[in-house]
């Protein structure tokens, strides 16, 4: 069965397709020592139907070729855009679906700040899904729930990482539903939920309080220099720039991603979703007039359905078509997996014996060159801010 058929730790991306398809409910997703979920079959119940093997998108690769077009996009609603990770285009599509009586699936925190897939039915609830959360979301039985809504004729927007979308499509048996819209993201890779749990505990110990709210992408210092923020129940706040936050350091140093992310099958321009969303890094070089450092989305339209929705929401955004190859030059995560950090195994070995700050200091330290560069940047920003030239400062720290 599935847990014997694929080399779990390297190949399985944890999409939950096998769990959702099993007619006997004999598959559970169990956490390994790194904190990633893998299928486990209860052979006392298994009827050898092979559905789990037939649904696995890694065993049955079927990437259909397509010819996407790419756009730089900005949601006209400034409040939504600032609350979103890039240009706020997810919310525009989600609102379009909800206004038509549909529902939206995506990744949201539960009350213990674990990340799970769930669905919402109203515009108000969309805030739960809005914003990137940099860890792997647990799909649970969302594919089954979404199928139930699809079969009853409800419009469904299903969003997630490319592997989650692929898992969902495989679960649906590649059946074409007119009422299904899918969005994937350009995905750097997903960190371990266990590492995230350890970080939340660390921050709560430091704050001596439980967490109330978390944002990975606060734009107070600009979109390109975003901050991670924790608001605690004792009314204190922790906030650090992406280069200084310990968790973001571990994420961006590629030390705690799921093993399959280092050799991702779905980093391609042949996306299986209707729409792909990403940060438009490099926008300052390609279309400087669309870069005000509040967030610009890179959007791929991958299907006719995606095109129809894009046309329907186009009145609510600023957009310009761009050359897709030019755009991905600044966003290699679209087409290329990151390299595994050579310290990855040691990082996980020490996960429980070291405090989070010691762990990151030991395995994710910047090189001397990067430290000097960051220090010089910080000094320059300080000086420019003092003399009222923050705009120039932002250009200096930008990724362009
Ligand atoms: C783990 C991760 C890695 C990413 N890596 C890159 C990258 O390398 N380059 C790049 O350009 N963009 C990357 N993105 C995408 C980018 O951060 C934005 O999510 C995207 O541009 C959409 O932004 P938005 O402003 O339109 O909407 P937002 O409101 O910011 O996005 C919300 C959408 O993201 C989904 N989402 C949030 N967290 C997760 C998660 N953990 N798993 C699955 N879905 C999630 C929600 O379900 C919702 O559909 C990444 C996102 C995630 C979650």
UniProtKB/TrEMBL annotation:
<keyword id="KW-0411">Iron-sulfur</keyword>
<keyword id="KW-0479">Metal-binding</keyword>
<keyword id="KW-0408">Iron</keyword>
<dbReference type="InterPro" id="IPR007525">
    <property type="entry name" value="FrhB_FdhB_C"/>
</dbReference>
<protein>
    <submittedName>
        <fullName>NAD(P)H-quinone oxidoreductase subunit I</fullName>
        <ecNumber>1.6.5.11</ecNumber>
    </submittedName>
</protein>
<keyword id="KW-0560">Oxidoreductase</keyword>
<feature type="domain" description="4Fe-4S ferredoxin-type">
    <location>
        <begin position="37"/>
        <end position="66"/>
    </location>
</feature>
<dbReference type="Pfam" id="PF04432">
    <property type="entry name" value="FrhB_FdhB_C"/>
</dbReference>
<dbReference type="GO" id="GO:0051536">
    <property type="term" value="F:iron-sulfur cluster binding"/>
</dbReference>
<dbReference type="InterPro" id="IPR007516">
    <property type="entry name" value="Co_F420_Hydgase/DH_bsu_N"/>
</dbReference>
<dbReference type="GO" id="GO:0046872">
    <property type="term" value="F:metal ion binding"/>
</dbReference>
<dbReference type="GO" id="GO:0016491">
    <property type="term" value="F:oxidoreductase activity"/>
</dbReference>
<dbReference type="Pfam" id="PF04422">
    <property type="entry name" value="FrhB_FdhB_N"/>
</dbReference>
<dbReference type="InterPro" id="IPR052977">
    <property type="entry name" value="Polyferredoxin-like_ET"/>
</dbReference>
<dbReference type="InterPro" id="IPR017900">
    <property type="entry name" value="4Fe4S_Fe_S_CS"/>
</dbReference>
<dbReference type="InterPro" id="IPR017896">
    <property type="entry name" value="4Fe4S_Fe-S-bd"/>
</dbReference>
<dbReference type="Pfam" id="PF12838">
    <property type="entry name" value="Fer4_7"/>
</dbReference>
<feature type="domain" description="4Fe-4S ferredoxin-type">
    <location>
        <begin position="4"/>
        <end position="32"/>
    </location>
</feature>
């Amino acid at each position: 069965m599935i847990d014997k058929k694929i080399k779990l730790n390297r190949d399985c991306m944890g999409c939950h397709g096998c769990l959702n398809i099993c007619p006997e409910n004999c598959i559970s997703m169990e956490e390994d020592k790194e904190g990633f979920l893998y299928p486990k079959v209860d052979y006392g119940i298994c009827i050898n139907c092979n559905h789990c093997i037939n649904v696995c998108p890694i065993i049955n690769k079927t990437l259909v070729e397509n010819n996407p077009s790419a756009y730089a996009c900005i949601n006209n609603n400034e409040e939504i855009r600032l609350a979103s990770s890039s240009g706020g285009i997810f919310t525009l599509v989600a609102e379009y679906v909800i206004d038509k009586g549909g529902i939206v699936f995506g990744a949201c925190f539960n009350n213990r700040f674990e990340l799970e897939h769930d669905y919402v039915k109203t515009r108000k609830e969309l805030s739960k899904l809005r914003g990137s959360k940099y860890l792997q979301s647990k799909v649970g039985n969302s594919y089954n729930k979404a199928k139930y809504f699809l079969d009853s004729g409800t419009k469904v927007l299903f969003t997630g990482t490319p592997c989650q979308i692929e898992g969902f499509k495989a679960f649906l048996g590649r059946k074409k539903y007119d009422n299904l819209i899918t969005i994937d993201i350009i995905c750097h890779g997903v960190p371990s939920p266990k590492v995230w749990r350890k970080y939340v505990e660390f921050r709560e110990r430091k704050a001596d309080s439980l967490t109330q709210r978390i944002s990975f992408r606060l734009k107070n210092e600009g979109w390109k220099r975003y901050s991670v923020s924790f608001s605690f129940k004792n009314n204190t706040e922790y906030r650090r720039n992406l280069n200084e936050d310990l968790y973001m350091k571990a994420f961006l140093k590629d030390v705690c991603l799921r093993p399959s992310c280092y050799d991702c099958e779905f980093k391609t321009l042949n996306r299986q979703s209707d729409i792909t969303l990403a940060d438009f890094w490099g926008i300052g070089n390609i279309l400087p007039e669309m870069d005000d450092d509040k967030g610009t989305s890179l959007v791929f339209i991958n299907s006719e359905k995606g095109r129809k929705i894009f046309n329907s929401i186009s009145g609510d955004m600023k957009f310009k078509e761009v050359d897709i190859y030019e755009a991905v030059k600044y966003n290699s995560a679209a087409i290329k997996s990151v390299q595994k950090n050579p310290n990855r195994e040691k990082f996980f070995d020490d996960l429980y014996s070291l405090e989070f700050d010691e762990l990151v200091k030991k395995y994710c330290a910047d090189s001397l060159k990067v430290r000097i560069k960051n220090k010089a940047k910080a000094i320059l920003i300080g000086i420019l801010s003092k003399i009222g030239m923050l705009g120039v400062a932002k250009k200096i720290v930008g990724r362009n």
